[in-house]
């Protein structure tokens, strides 16, 4: 592994007015675009394939391979859509990136759209982050004025129109096909696949949908080469990425490091768990990934390592919880979120998340029994793999994993007739009667 921290995407975040075109250009911004326009689109796709870049939105699918799925013999227009609808609890990497250096994303969009031969691109942004939308819109305007967007970009004969689209604040629109429906003006709900977006996506035309960080990584690959990118990370999970540390850490924030770093190393960089406390559990990729515990501190944070530990790397949203946290209450809060954000299109998710909340709420109040734990697991089993999209699966992950690692804590709730957590003493399993 290379150096512990590898600032690439975040390298210019501390520059004066880093979000402006002048500042970005001073650091070599848009040089990669000029290089890319001198290459054949197919060669760009091969370059991204060779680099080993995998989707940074959660699934980890090879980016270059996704680009290669676009059928170039299809007479319909090709579209590039950037998924900037960052909504996963604990995930906070794309918004800082777009705020600090929106031109990194804009340059990535132009290069990526050129590679797949698309003449229209969209950045779909979560509607609540109005400050980000405004910053992106200004960056796009600057790019048009500088000739990086529009007709005959830098005399290459290539045309591209880029639109920043504000969503309406629905978590489900982070799912790529629900995002497409929303972009088309319909209610955001997942589509049944096939057909896949690469064949029939936006307006029933070939479409590539990538996460902000995936697209923002493209200029650095064009500028420095596939070998440079592959020199970071691990054999199957190459490159650098943004890890978001939040929760009970001394210095929460974004830490850009090679894939394969461990939480122990990241915690050392972040000053450790807050003073006087110790790690209890954590999420490797947001609240929809199975939780892990202190025994997993040395698991490599790459797609294979986290998968082998029984979880998913996801969005690399590392939420850290110390011993003062009631795991049942934390899981209940997450489940309430998924129930609220379910689009209601499929029965397992619409009905299942509602029943998960009812059962968890009863357990958290100390009104449940051991049988309710089995009912809870049975409910999860009936949702997992049976819903249109991953929202249903994600809702079950924190529940099943928390019961796996903290079953005693669930049992203690109904044995004590309520939550056994004593906030005054910051301990768990306090004597009966000391309920939060």
TrEMBL record:
<dbReference type="InterPro" id="IPR001949">
    <property type="entry name" value="NADH-UbQ_OxRdtase_51kDa_CS"/>
</dbReference>
<protein>
    <recommendedName>
        <fullName>NADH-quinone oxidoreductase subunit F</fullName>
        <ecNumber>7.1.1.-</ecNumber>
    </recommendedName>
</protein>
<comment type="function">
    <text>NDH-1 shuttles electrons from NADH, via FMN and iron-sulfur (Fe-S) centers, to quinones in the respiratory chain.</text>
</comment>
<dbReference type="InterPro" id="IPR037225">
    <property type="entry name" value="Nuo51_FMN-bd_sf"/>
</dbReference>
<dbReference type="GO" id="GO:0045333">
    <property type="term" value="P:cellular respiration"/>
</dbReference>
<keyword id="KW-0520">NAD</keyword>
<dbReference type="GO" id="GO:0003954">
    <property type="term" value="F:NADH dehydrogenase activity"/>
</dbReference>
<keyword id="KW-0285">Flavoprotein</keyword>
<dbReference type="InterPro" id="IPR019575">
    <property type="entry name" value="Nuop51_4Fe4S-bd"/>
</dbReference>
<dbReference type="Pfam" id="PF10531">
    <property type="entry name" value="SLBB"/>
</dbReference>
<keyword id="KW-0288">FMN</keyword>
<dbReference type="GO" id="GO:0051287">
    <property type="term" value="F:NAD binding"/>
</dbReference>
<dbReference type="InterPro" id="IPR011538">
    <property type="entry name" value="Nuo51_FMN-bd"/>
</dbReference>
<dbReference type="GO" id="GO:0048038">
    <property type="term" value="F:quinone binding"/>
</dbReference>
<dbReference type="GO" id="GO:0010181">
    <property type="term" value="F:FMN binding"/>
</dbReference>
<keyword id="KW-0004">4Fe-4S</keyword>
<keyword id="KW-0874">Quinone</keyword>
<dbReference type="GO" id="GO:0051539">
    <property type="term" value="F:4 iron, 4 sulfur cluster binding"/>
</dbReference>
<dbReference type="InterPro" id="IPR050837">
    <property type="entry name" value="ComplexI_51kDa_subunit"/>
</dbReference>
<comment type="similarity">
    <text>Belongs to the complex I 51 kDa subunit family.</text>
</comment>
<keyword id="KW-0408">Iron</keyword>
<feature type="domain" description="NADH-ubiquinone oxidoreductase 51kDa subunit iron-sulphur binding">
    <location>
        <begin position="328"/>
        <end position="373"/>
    </location>
</feature>
<keyword id="KW-0479">Metal-binding</keyword>
<keyword id="KW-1278">Translocase</keyword>
<dbReference type="InterPro" id="IPR019554">
    <property type="entry name" value="Soluble_ligand-bd"/>
</dbReference>
<dbReference type="Pfam" id="PF10589">
    <property type="entry name" value="NADH_4Fe-4S"/>
</dbReference>
<dbReference type="Pfam" id="PF01512">
    <property type="entry name" value="Complex1_51K"/>
</dbReference>
<keyword id="KW-0560">Oxidoreductase</keyword>
<dbReference type="InterPro" id="IPR037207">
    <property type="entry name" value="Nuop51_4Fe4S-bd_sf"/>
</dbReference>
<dbReference type="InterPro" id="IPR011537">
    <property type="entry name" value="NADH-UbQ_OxRdtase_suF"/>
</dbReference>
<dbReference type="GO" id="GO:0008137">
    <property type="term" value="F:NADH dehydrogenase (ubiquinone) activity"/>
</dbReference>
<keyword id="KW-0411">Iron-sulfur</keyword>
<dbReference type="GO" id="GO:0046872">
    <property type="term" value="F:metal ion binding"/>
</dbReference>
